[in-house]
Amino acid sequence: MIKLLDILKEIGDASSQPYSFDFYSDYGDIRIYGFDTESYPYTVELQYADLDNYDEDATNILGVRFYIADEDDPDMERDDIVTNKGELFRVMATVTAIIKKDLQDHPEIDTITFTPAKKEGETTNVSRLNLYTRYIKNAFPNAIITAGGRGSVEVKLK
To answer: Where are the alpha helices (DSSP H) in the chain?
Structure first.
C-alpha cells in the first residue's frame, strides 16, 4: 500500500500554503511580483513574448524567473544563497500561485518556459529541474513538458 508520506516526497509538499505575494510593477513585457519568506525577499519575473516563429504551436510565451533579491538593490539577483529547506515547498507553492494568477489575467499564454539555475559547483541543474517539473505536473496536469535549448524547459498548456 502506498503511504501518503511517500507521495508527498514524490511531488513535494503539496499541502504547503503560498506566501502572501504582491504585484510590484509592469515594465513593458515584464511583470514583476514579489514575496517575503521568513529569511529572504523573493522576486518573480514573468516575461511575455509574442513570438510567431518560436514554435509552430506556440505564439504566446511566458518566461519565468524567480530569485532572492539583494537587500541593497532589489533588481539584483542573489544566486549565492541557497533556499532554506524548510521554506522550499512554500516558495514553490508561491511561484506556482503567482503563475496561475498571471495566467488568469492573461489567458492568451499558451507556453511557459524557464531555465532552472545550477547550484554553485554543479555542472547540471537536474535536481532543480526535477523539482520544478513535479510542481508543473501537479499544477498543470494536462500540460506537455519538453526540453528546450540550453537547459530550458517548455510547458505547453492545454
So the answer is: 4-11, 85-105, 126-139
CA atoms within a 13 Å half-sphere pointing along the CA-CB vector of 137:
11
Structural domains of the chain, with CATH: 26-156 (3.40.630)
The three cell numbers locating residue 39: 529569511
| pLDDT tens, N- to C-terminus, the chain (158 residues) | 444 444 444 445 567 899 999 999 998 889 999 999 998 889 999 998 755 444 555 568 899 999 887 778 766 777 667 666 678 889 999 999 999 999 999 898 999 998 887 666 666 677 788 888 888 889 999 999 998 777 788 999 98
Cα-based distances in Å from 110 to 21, 60, 65 = 24, 6, 17
The residue with cell 537547459 is 151
The answer to pTM > 0.85 is no
- Other C-beta atoms within 10 Å of 28: how many? 7
N- to C-terminal Cα separation, the chain = 33
